[in-house]
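Bumping with the actual sequence this time:
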Amino acid sequence: MTHRPQRLLALAQLANSVGDGAYYVTSALYFTHVVGLAPARVGLGLTLAWAVGSLVGVPLGRLADRRGPRGTSVLLALGTSTAVASFLLVRGFVPFVLTAGVYASAQSGLAAARQALLAGLVPAGERTGLLARLQSTLNGGLAVGAALGGLALSAGTAAAYRGVLVLDTLCFLVCSLLLLRLPAVTAVASVGPGGGGRRFAVLRDRRYALVAVLNAVMLLRLPLLSLALPLWITERTGAPAWLASGLFVLNTLAVTLFQVRAARAVTGLGSALRVLRRSGLVMFASCAVFALSAGRSGRPAAAILIAGAVLQVLAEMQQSAGSWQLSFDLAPADRVGEYQGFFGTGVTVARTLGPLMVTWLLLGWGTPGWLLLGALMPAAAYAMGPATRLSTGRRAPEEAGEPVFAAGTG
């Protein structure tokens, strides 16, 4: 196995993450200042769009299994590029929601299809390590993109914001071209008797669903850096408001530099579960430390918040590595795309429901809210063990632990 497919996967990840980073930091202002939508309507439209995206992840992942993950990934990357370009033409709420729905659907499907493509090109024992490298690449690309977006924010003009959308459009186009250069992978779900069995079997797989739900609980950390901590810092502490940006940079740099190292401890289901349990405990400690910043001012509050952020990123890297291993090892070999599409909805659910839950707990309850949120993490992590044993118990050992794909040449 050469390293060329892994390099191409990393370059494709880098290309789209640079575009995403620029888009994320400027899109809200583009839609409000240039398109003219009210902030509440932008929030509602994005919630509706990502709700649709979470629903189509499974069928698009299934499409990757049946028609081939490389071709499906290329088409979905092109679909994302087209959707971003279409934002340049949006004028009004309904076109915005429709375009955002296409964007979210293509992004959700692309994530599932690329996981299936990775599984087809990379041996089972190397997948978690490669995903760690891709995560580092993702964070590095987001940082570069965010810096480019910052230039547009500094300019503050409609032309600058439109330039970011053009950049994102081109980045996903480059991503699609890089994915096209990868070897084709056999569409395994259509091979064998019955043409791949029942449709959308993952929706009936309650054991796998339980693992995915527990993972979604652990993903409630996602809104902390982008939403909860900025509000907490300004409303409950005397730390400077700019510290929220500093904590985000700290997180991004740490993941870029150390995610690969954090993933080395994960080599199978057993080590994945141990790392997840450790992640839950560290996340509880992080929440407890964040809670200590309440009512403190200046440097003491900043020092406490930085300590909490360090613990939070350690927990994040461990949780990511453990969950990657489980999501692949518990999926049937002929339905990786479909199962990855379902597992990936945890991110969408956490980003959709998490902000409401996290802000209610933390800003409404204060320290007890932090402790309750923190306690959810080890509870979910320790429940992963029994849930995983249930999931592997009904599947042949070789299918549960070593999914095998055959690479094609077409």
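The tokens above came from a reply further down the thread. The mean pLDDT is 85.
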